[in-house]
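Follow-up to my earlier ticket, as requested here are the two runs.
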Amino acid sequence: MPFIKTIEYSDADEKLKQVYDGLIESRGKLAEVHKIQSLNPEALTAHMDLYMTVMFGKSPLKRYQREMIAVIVSSANSCFYCINHHEQALLAYWKDEDRVANLRTDREKAGLSDQDERLCLLAEELTKNPSAGFSDRVSELKEAGLNDRAVLDAVQVIAYFNFVNRMVLGLGAEFTEDEMKGYHY
C-alpha cells in the first residue's frame, strides 16, 4: 500500500479523470506509479510528457535500448516495481525470457552487442556513482558507434529512471502481477 493517499479513477475529479483517461489511452492502462502522483495532476502530466518523449520519442537509440537502460538503472536502485515493468517491455522486443533475466543477473549471458554493453555500463555507473568522471565512458560510446544525440538520450533515460525509482521507492508504489499486463510498448 502506498505511503501517501492516492486517488482511484472512480474517486477522481473531472480534471484528474481527464489525466487518467489520457494515460489509459496512451499507455493502455493506469499504473500504480501514476496513481501515487494523483494529488498533483499537473506534475503527473509533466512527468508523463517527459516519459513519452524520453522513452518513445524520436531518438538514435532503439526502443529496446531505452528499456534495457531502464532495467539496468532500476536494478542498480533495487526498484523491483520498475524492474518488473521494464523487463516486460524489453521482453516485447527481445522475446526471450532467459535473455531478459540474464540482463539483470549475468549480463555476459545476455548476448549484448558492444554498444549495448557500454550503454549498460554507463547506466550502472552513473546510477551508482554519479560524481565519477564519465568522459571516458562517453568516448567509449562514441567509439561503439553512438553519436552525441544518442549519448544525450541515454543519459536522459538514466536520469529519468533514477528520478522515477526514487519516487516509487519513496512513496511505496506496489507491484502486482496485474501491473505487468495491458500496456502499450
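Run two:
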Amino acid sequence: MKIAISGASGFIGTNLSDYFKKNGNIIVPINRFLLDDESAEKLKEALSDVDVVINLAGTSINHRWTESYKKKIYDSRIFTTRRIVETINSLERKPQLFISASAVGYYPSEGCYDEYSSTKGDSFLSDICYRWEQEARQVSASVRLAITRFGVVIAEKGGAFKQMTLPMKFKVATVVGPGSQSFAWIYIDDLVMAMKHIIETPSINDIINFVTPEHVTNKEFTETIAKHRKCFIRLTIPQFFFRMILGKASSVITEGQCVIPHKLLDSGYKFIAPTVEKLADILYNKHG
C-alpha cells in the first residue's frame, strides 16, 4: 500500500511512517515545499497513485496566541488541508481513503461527547477545528473520509507527556489547577494502531474520536502516573501561572474535554492502553 502523509516528519507522523514502512508500505511525505503554490503539479504527481492520504499538518498550539500566531495556526491547518483536498479532487485515480486530523478541542469543556454529538465549543480552538474539518469535507464523495479528533497524544519520549512528567524526575508531581478538568488522551501506539484499524475497516468514516475509553481528570491522570514514578511531593499549579505565560492559550492546559471513542469501540478496536493504570504499566514496568 502507498500512503501519503503530510506532517510526516512530526511527532505523530514519524511514528506512523515508521510503523507503516516496517510493515511493507511505501510512505510519500507531503512536505511544505510540495504545498507551495509553485508546486501544484509536483503535489499532484506525488498523490497520483497513492491509496491513502493522511493529513497531519498543523503548527503547534502550545504557544502564546498573538494575532500573528493565530494566523499561523489557522493557515497551517485550513490552507494545507484545502490544497491537499483540491489536489485529490483533481486526480483521475483518487485515493481510496482520506484521513484528516482534528482535535477534541472541537467540543465544549462542559459535558461529555461522542462522535454523534453535534455540539461545538465556542473557543478559538473549537472554531479552528470546525473550519479544519469543513475543508476536509470538500473531498470528493468517491473518497472515504475519516476525520480523527485527537486527544493529548502520550508517548514516553515525545509530545506533551515528556513536559508533563519532567518534574517527576525530582519526585515532584504537578497538577494543573484546578485539576478537576477532563483530560482526554491516547497512547501513541493506540493512535498508530487505530489508524491501521481505520484503513482496514471500510465501514468506519466521518468523525472518529481518538481518545481512551476511560474518563479521567487532570488530577487523576497525574496522581496515577506519580504513584508509579514514586513521587512524594504533590503540587497544584494555579491557573493564573499558565495565563501569565501563555495568555489565552493556557485554556488548552487549564480546561479539557470529556470525550467518548464510540466508533472505535463499536467497530471492535481493542485499546493497548485503555486506562491510565495500563499506560503506567506499559511505560514503567518494562524498566523493572
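The only thing I checked on run two: DSSP finds eleven helices and twelve strands in the chain. Let me know what else you need.
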